[in-house]
Write a structure and sequence with these properties.
Length: about 300
Protein backbone atom coordinates (compact mmCIF):
# COMPACT_ATOMS: atom_id res chain seq x y z
CA UNK A 1 0.00 0.00 0.00
CA UNK A 2 1.19 3.52 -0.60
CA UNK A 3 0.41 7.14 0.04
CA UNK A 4 1.53 10.37 -1.51
CA UNK A 5 1.03 14.11 -1.24
CA UNK A 6 1.33 16.28 -4.36
CA UNK A 7 2.26 19.97 -4.36
CA UNK A 8 3.50 20.38 -7.93
CA UNK A 9 1.09 23.24 -8.44
CA UNK A 10 2.57 25.18 -5.55
CA UNK A 11 6.04 25.04 -7.09
CA UNK A 12 4.72 26.09 -10.49
CA UNK A 13 2.84 28.98 -8.90
CA UNK A 14 5.99 30.09 -7.08
CA UNK A 15 7.76 30.42 -10.42
CA UNK A 16 4.75 32.04 -12.12
CA UNK A 17 4.55 34.70 -9.42
CA UNK A 18 7.92 36.04 -10.49
CA UNK A 19 7.61 35.70 -14.28
CA UNK A 20 6.53 39.35 -14.67
CA UNK A 21 9.59 40.54 -12.79
CA UNK A 22 11.77 38.27 -14.88
CA UNK A 23 10.42 39.79 -18.09
CA UNK A 24 11.08 43.30 -16.79
CA UNK A 25 14.65 42.42 -15.77
CA UNK A 26 15.20 40.68 -19.12
CA UNK A 27 14.16 43.74 -21.17
CA UNK A 28 16.17 46.15 -19.04
CA UNK A 29 19.38 44.15 -19.04
CA UNK A 30 19.16 43.27 -22.74
CA UNK A 31 19.05 46.97 -23.60
CA UNK A 32 22.01 47.83 -21.38
CA UNK A 33 23.96 44.81 -22.61
CA UNK A 34 23.91 46.17 -26.17
CA UNK A 35 24.92 49.63 -24.97
CA UNK A 36 27.81 48.23 -22.89
CA UNK A 37 29.09 45.99 -25.70
CA UNK A 38 29.16 48.86 -28.19
CA UNK A 39 30.82 51.15 -25.68
CA UNK A 40 33.40 48.50 -24.71
CA UNK A 41 34.66 48.16 -28.28
CA UNK A 42 34.54 51.92 -28.75
CA UNK A 43 36.54 52.69 -25.60
CA UNK A 44 38.85 49.66 -25.62
CA UNK A 45 37.96 48.82 -22.01
CA UNK A 46 38.36 45.16 -21.01
CA UNK A 47 36.60 45.82 -17.71
CA UNK A 48 33.59 47.21 -19.57
CA UNK A 49 33.72 44.31 -22.03
CA UNK A 50 33.78 41.83 -19.15
CA UNK A 51 30.80 43.58 -17.62
CA UNK A 52 28.96 43.42 -20.96
CA UNK A 53 29.81 39.73 -21.29
CA UNK A 54 28.57 39.11 -17.78
CA UNK A 55 25.40 41.02 -18.58
CA UNK A 56 24.97 38.83 -21.67
CA UNK A 57 24.91 35.77 -19.43
CA UNK A 58 22.38 37.59 -17.24
CA UNK A 59 20.11 38.09 -20.24
CA UNK A 60 20.61 34.54 -21.50
CA UNK A 61 20.14 33.10 -18.02
CA UNK A 62 16.92 35.02 -17.42
CA UNK A 63 15.71 33.97 -20.87
CA UNK A 64 16.40 30.33 -19.97
CA UNK A 65 14.56 30.82 -16.69
CA UNK A 66 11.54 32.21 -18.52
CA UNK A 67 11.63 29.34 -21.01
CA UNK A 68 11.79 26.80 -18.19
CA UNK A 69 8.84 28.42 -16.40
CA UNK A 70 6.79 28.41 -19.60
CA UNK A 71 7.64 24.79 -20.44
CA UNK A 72 6.91 23.68 -16.87
CA UNK A 73 3.50 25.35 -16.95
CA UNK A 74 2.58 23.70 -20.25
CA UNK A 75 3.81 20.25 -19.26
CA UNK A 76 1.71 19.84 -16.13
CA UNK A 77 -1.30 18.63 -18.13
CA UNK A 78 0.62 15.87 -19.97
CA UNK A 79 -0.15 12.48 -18.35
CA UNK A 80 3.10 11.05 -19.71
CA UNK A 81 5.14 13.54 -17.70
CA UNK A 82 4.19 12.44 -14.22
CA UNK A 83 6.57 14.96 -12.64
CA UNK A 84 6.03 17.64 -15.26
CA UNK A 85 9.18 19.37 -16.54
CA UNK A 86 10.39 20.76 -13.26
CA UNK A 87 13.94 19.59 -13.94
CA UNK A 88 14.18 22.13 -16.78
CA UNK A 89 14.81 24.91 -14.26
CA UNK A 90 17.68 22.89 -12.81
CA UNK A 91 19.15 22.40 -16.29
CA UNK A 92 18.78 26.14 -16.89
CA UNK A 93 20.66 26.87 -13.67
CA UNK A 94 23.44 24.48 -14.68
CA UNK A 95 23.63 26.12 -18.09
CA UNK A 96 23.92 29.52 -16.44
CA UNK A 97 26.78 28.30 -14.29
CA UNK A 98 28.67 26.89 -17.28
CA UNK A 99 28.21 30.05 -19.36
CA UNK A 100 29.20 32.32 -16.53
CA UNK A 101 32.31 30.26 -15.81
CA UNK A 102 33.30 30.52 -19.47
CA UNK A 103 32.97 34.30 -19.44
CA UNK A 104 34.99 34.56 -16.23
CA UNK A 105 37.81 32.38 -17.59
CA UNK A 106 37.97 34.39 -20.83
CA UNK A 107 38.18 37.67 -18.93
CA UNK A 108 40.95 36.32 -16.68
CA UNK A 109 43.01 35.11 -19.63
CA UNK A 110 42.58 38.37 -21.54
CA UNK A 111 43.41 40.41 -18.43
CA UNK A 112 46.67 38.51 -17.89
CA UNK A 113 47.59 39.18 -21.52
CA UNK A 114 46.91 42.90 -21.10
CA UNK A 115 48.99 43.26 -17.95
CA UNK A 116 52.12 43.15 -20.11
CA UNK A 117 51.09 46.22 -22.08
CA UNK A 118 47.78 47.72 -20.96
CA UNK A 119 46.13 49.68 -23.79
CA UNK A 120 44.71 53.13 -23.27
CA UNK A 121 40.97 53.38 -22.81
CA UNK A 122 38.52 56.22 -23.36
CA UNK A 123 37.45 57.04 -19.82
CA UNK A 124 34.44 59.34 -20.34
CA UNK A 125 32.10 56.97 -22.22
CA UNK A 126 33.36 54.08 -20.10
CA UNK A 127 32.26 55.88 -16.92
CA UNK A 128 28.87 56.92 -18.30
CA UNK A 129 27.97 53.46 -19.60
CA UNK A 130 29.19 51.75 -16.43
CA UNK A 131 26.98 54.06 -14.36
CA UNK A 132 23.97 53.20 -16.52
CA UNK A 133 24.82 49.51 -16.11
CA UNK A 134 24.97 49.92 -12.35
CA UNK A 135 21.52 51.53 -12.26
CA UNK A 136 20.07 48.79 -14.46
CA UNK A 137 21.55 46.07 -12.27
CA UNK A 138 20.23 47.68 -9.09
CA UNK A 139 16.72 47.58 -10.56
CA UNK A 140 17.12 43.98 -11.81
CA UNK A 141 18.59 42.93 -8.44
CA UNK A 142 15.53 44.30 -6.65
CA UNK A 143 13.19 42.53 -9.10
CA UNK A 144 14.80 39.11 -8.64
CA UNK A 145 15.71 39.13 -4.97
CA UNK A 146 12.52 37.64 -3.54
CA UNK A 147 12.26 34.90 -6.17
CA UNK A 148 15.85 33.73 -5.54
CA UNK A 149 14.73 32.25 -2.21
CA UNK A 150 12.19 29.95 -3.87
CA UNK A 151 13.83 28.70 -7.08
CA UNK A 152 17.33 27.53 -8.01
CA UNK A 153 16.59 28.79 -11.50
CA UNK A 154 15.79 32.31 -10.27
CA UNK A 155 18.74 32.06 -7.88
CA UNK A 156 21.05 31.58 -10.85
CA UNK A 157 19.74 34.72 -12.54
CA UNK A 158 19.89 36.60 -9.23
CA UNK A 159 23.52 35.65 -8.61
CA UNK A 160 24.46 36.73 -12.12
CA UNK A 161 22.83 40.13 -11.61
CA UNK A 162 24.52 40.49 -8.22
CA UNK A 163 27.91 39.77 -9.75
CA UNK A 164 27.20 42.17 -12.59
CA UNK A 165 26.14 44.88 -10.15
CA UNK A 166 29.44 44.62 -8.31
CA UNK A 167 31.22 44.46 -11.65
CA UNK A 168 29.65 47.78 -12.65
CA UNK A 169 30.92 49.28 -9.42
CA UNK A 170 34.40 48.00 -10.26
CA UNK A 171 34.28 49.46 -13.77
CA UNK A 172 33.21 52.84 -12.38
CA UNK A 173 36.10 52.70 -9.92
CA UNK A 174 38.57 51.79 -12.64
CA UNK A 175 37.36 54.62 -14.88
CA UNK A 176 37.67 57.12 -12.04
CA UNK A 177 41.16 55.89 -11.14
CA UNK A 178 42.36 56.08 -14.74
CA UNK A 179 40.88 59.57 -15.13
CA UNK A 180 42.73 60.83 -12.04
CA UNK A 181 46.05 58.96 -12.25
CA UNK A 182 46.38 57.62 -15.85
CA UNK A 183 47.06 54.22 -14.24
CA UNK A 184 45.96 52.01 -17.15
CA UNK A 185 46.51 48.79 -15.23
CA UNK A 186 43.30 49.56 -13.33
CA UNK A 187 41.24 48.30 -16.27
CA UNK A 188 42.61 44.71 -16.48
CA UNK A 189 42.93 44.63 -12.69
CA UNK A 190 39.22 45.27 -12.25
CA UNK A 191 38.49 42.71 -14.96
CA UNK A 192 40.45 40.11 -12.94
CA UNK A 193 38.57 41.08 -9.78
CA UNK A 194 35.24 40.56 -11.57
CA UNK A 195 36.33 37.14 -12.84
CA UNK A 196 37.60 36.03 -9.43
CA UNK A 197 34.34 37.16 -7.84
CA UNK A 198 32.19 35.32 -10.37
CA UNK A 199 33.84 31.89 -10.40
CA UNK A 200 33.21 30.61 -6.81
CA UNK A 201 29.55 31.61 -6.97
CA UNK A 202 28.96 29.95 -10.31
CA UNK A 203 30.65 26.77 -9.14
CA UNK A 204 28.40 26.65 -6.07
CA UNK A 205 25.36 27.13 -8.28
CA UNK A 206 26.55 24.42 -10.67
CA UNK A 207 27.24 22.05 -7.78
CA UNK A 208 23.73 22.57 -6.41
CA UNK A 209 22.23 21.85 -9.83
CA UNK A 210 24.34 18.71 -10.31
CA UNK A 211 23.31 17.40 -6.88
CA UNK A 212 19.68 17.64 -7.93
CA UNK A 213 20.29 16.04 -11.32
CA UNK A 214 22.10 13.03 -9.80
CA UNK A 215 19.29 12.75 -7.24
CA UNK A 216 21.54 13.15 -4.22
CA UNK A 217 19.81 13.77 -0.92
CA UNK A 218 19.35 17.48 -0.12
CA UNK A 219 22.33 18.88 1.75
CA UNK A 220 20.14 20.25 4.53
CA UNK A 221 18.62 16.81 5.24
CA UNK A 222 20.31 13.89 6.96
CA UNK A 223 18.92 10.66 5.53
CA UNK A 224 19.76 8.83 8.75
CA UNK A 225 17.62 11.33 10.66
CA UNK A 226 14.72 10.75 8.27
CA UNK A 227 15.16 6.99 8.72
CA UNK A 228 15.20 7.22 12.51
CA UNK A 229 12.15 9.49 12.56
CA UNK A 230 10.11 7.10 10.41
CA UNK A 231 11.28 4.17 12.52
CA UNK A 232 9.97 6.00 15.59
CA UNK A 233 6.44 6.23 14.17
CA UNK A 234 4.09 4.12 16.34
CA UNK A 235 3.40 0.80 14.64
CA UNK A 236 6.58 0.80 12.49
CA UNK A 237 9.13 -1.91 13.29
CA UNK A 238 11.50 -1.42 10.34
CA UNK A 239 12.28 1.11 7.62
CA UNK A 240 14.09 0.12 4.41
CA UNK A 241 14.51 1.24 0.80
CA UNK A 242 14.46 4.86 1.94
CA UNK A 243 15.22 7.41 -0.78
CA UNK A 244 15.22 11.18 -0.41
CA UNK A 245 15.94 13.55 -3.30
CA UNK A 246 15.06 16.93 -4.74
CA UNK A 247 12.90 17.13 -7.83
CA UNK A 248 13.33 20.89 -8.19
CA UNK A 249 13.69 23.92 -5.94
CA UNK A 250 11.42 23.62 -2.93
CA UNK A 251 10.22 20.11 -3.83
CA UNK A 252 11.87 17.43 -1.72
CA UNK A 253 10.62 13.92 -2.45
CA UNK A 254 10.86 10.72 -0.40
CA UNK A 255 9.94 7.08 -0.79
CA UNK A 256 10.25 4.31 1.77
CA UNK A 257 9.06 0.86 2.76
CA UNK A 258 7.63 0.62 6.27
CA UNK A 259 7.32 -2.75 7.96
CA UNK A 260 4.40 -2.66 10.40
CA UNK A 261 3.79 -4.38 13.70
CA UNK A 262 1.09 -7.09 13.49
CA UNK A 263 -1.42 -5.06 15.50
CA UNK A 264 -0.76 -1.70 13.76
CA UNK A 265 -3.43 0.06 11.71
CA UNK A 266 -2.39 0.96 8.19
CA UNK A 267 -4.21 4.31 8.03
CA UNK A 268 -2.79 5.48 11.34
CA UNK A 269 0.77 4.51 10.39
CA UNK A 270 0.58 6.27 7.02
CA UNK A 271 -0.93 9.43 8.52
CA UNK A 272 1.69 9.59 11.28
CA UNK A 273 4.55 8.97 8.85
CA UNK A 274 3.37 11.67 6.44
CA UNK A 275 2.94 14.11 9.31
CA UNK A 276 6.45 13.37 10.59
CA UNK A 277 7.99 13.96 7.16
CA UNK A 278 6.03 17.18 6.70
CA UNK A 279 6.60 18.71 10.12
CA UNK A 280 10.17 17.61 10.78
CA UNK A 281 11.70 17.74 7.28
CA UNK A 282 9.26 19.78 5.13
CA UNK A 283 8.90 16.85 2.73
CA UNK A 284 5.54 17.33 1.06
CA UNK A 285 5.62 14.51 -1.49
CA UNK A 286 6.16 11.07 0.01
CA UNK A 287 5.35 7.63 -1.33
CA UNK A 288 5.23 5.11 1.50
CA UNK A 289 4.93 1.36 0.99
CA UNK A 290 3.45 -0.45 3.98
CA UNK A 291 4.36 -4.12 4.52
CA UNK A 292 3.10 -6.65 7.05
CA UNK A 293 5.62 -7.53 9.71
CA UNK A 294 5.32 -11.28 9.43
CA UNK A 295 6.49 -11.44 5.79
CA UNK A 296 8.20 -8.99 3.51
CA UNK A 297 7.05 -11.02 0.48
CA UNK A 298 7.51 -9.36 -2.90
CA UNK A 299 8.06 -5.98 -1.25
CA UNK A 300 11.40 -6.94 0.28
CA UNK A 301 14.49 -4.70 0.08
CA UNK A 302 15.63 -3.94 -3.45
CA UNK A 303 19.28 -3.42 -2.54
CA UNK A 304 19.41 0.11 -3.92
Amino acid sequence: MGAGHDHHGAVANAADRHSGRLWAAFALLATLMIVEAVAAFGTGSLALLSDAGHMFTDVLGIGMALAAITATRRATADPQRTFGLYRLEVLAALGNAVLLSGVAVYVLVEAVRRFGEPPEVTVGPMLVVATLGLLANVVAFALLRSGAKESINLRGAYLEVLGDLLGSVGVIGAAALIAVTDWWWADPLVAVAIGVFILPRTWRLGRAAVRILVQAAPEHLQVTAVHDRLAAVPGVVEVHDLHVWTLTSGMEVASAHLTMAPDAEVGAVLAAARTALHEDFHIEHATLQVEPGESAGPCGPTGW
